[in-house]
Write a structure and sequence with these properties.
It is a single chain. By secondary structure, the chain is mostly helical. The protein contains 4 helices and no strands. The longest helix is centred in the first third of the chain and has 25 residues. The protein is elongated and about 60 Å long. The chain starts with 13 loop residues before the first helix and ends with a helix.
Length: about 80
């Protein structure tokens, strides 16, 4: 339906490509919020300062946790 008659076998249709881009974005959010939460225990370390902007963007530590939680459920539901 969305594929051309002579498509390359490694290409997917636009909906599949868009959903996989969304999945990659969700995984990136998980990584960023995970590191931000993990290094909240040692705020003086240089890695904690590298990921401190994630808490600022989210608002505070609780919102970062909620974003991490809901995005994890989104990845689970995608699978």
């Amino acid at each position: 339906m969305l594929l051309k008659p002579g498509h390359d076998p490694y290409l997917r249709n636009p909906l599949a490509r868009t959903s996989y881009v969304g999945l990659y974005v969700m995984v990136l959010i998980e990584i960023l919020t995970g590191f931000a939460m993990y290094y909240m225990t040692e705020p003086a370390s240089y890695i904690a300062r590298a990921f401190a902007w994630v808490n600022v963007v989210c608002g505070n530590e609780m919102v970062t946790h909620l974003v991490h939680h809901y995005v994890a459920w989104g990845i689970i539901l995608f699978a």
